[in-house]
Design goal:
Length: 211
């Protein structure tokens, strides 16, 4: 049993000491990024609250959001923490600016009406039902469906061509039935070519009695 108590309570093994060195190096690299993000967030809130200095809160907000994104990308803070801080910062800035929504390079706000949202939801539901009804399609099934569509299109084209040919034949047969060198008389011409109606016997008798 040692005569003096142990004062060192840290790592003693080589692997433990190596981990301590790595943690210290990582802290030296990542701590400035965390500090920069926090400083920019505080600066943005200060400028948005007190706008007497004439600084632009939108520009500072974009810088703070970019700093949070960089810190999350490098691993200085968790990505979910960065997203949460950005959301809270934007809400605080909007409230400080009088509830006006501002569009920045790093954060874009989008407003959608209720009718449009309901319509989009119905379209998504209908598309999902159609996909479920069809089921998983293989490559052979897709090829078969494409062949069926092609065959139907070709059949429709052939039917239309046959109907046009028959109508053309009927027109030529009617033309051949007429005498050569004559043209069909129009209804008005036929009515004009009819002789005048003969007077009735009773009218003739009246005219002869008057004489």
């Amino acid at each position: 049993m040692p005569k003096t108590p142990r004062k060192w309570k840290g790592a003693r093994s080589p692997s433990g000491l190596r981990q301590v060195r790595l943690s210290a190096a990582r802290h030296r690299v990542l701590q400035p990024r965390r500090t920069a993000a926090k400083s920019l967030v505080a600066k943005t809130l200060r400028i948005a609250t007190d706008r007497s200095n004439g600084a632009d809160a939108t520009t500072t907000l974009a810088e703070a959001l970019s700093a949070l994104d960089r810190a999350a990308k490098s691993g200085a803070i968790h990505p979910n923490a960065a997203a949460r801080r950005k959301s809270r910062l934007v809400r605080h800035v909007n409230a400080a600016l009088g509830g006006v929504r501002e569009q920045t390079a790093a954060h874009v706000t989008k407003t959608t009406g209720r009718a449009q949202a309901a319509k989009a939801a119905k379209a998504r539901i209908a598309a999902g039902k159609v996909e479920k009804a069809k089921g998983a399609q293989t490559a052979a099934g897709k090829a078969r469906a494409a062949l069926t569509r092609t065959t139907r299109a070709q059949g429709g084209a052939a039917e239309s061509a046959t109907s046009r040919t028959e109508s053309a034949r009927a027109g030529t047969s009617k033309t051949a039935a007429r005498k050569p060198g004559t043209t069909p008389a129009k209804p008005a011409a036929r009515a004009a070519a009819k002789p005048a109606a003969k007077p009735s016997r009773a009218g003739a008798a009246k005219k002869s009695s008057k004489r």
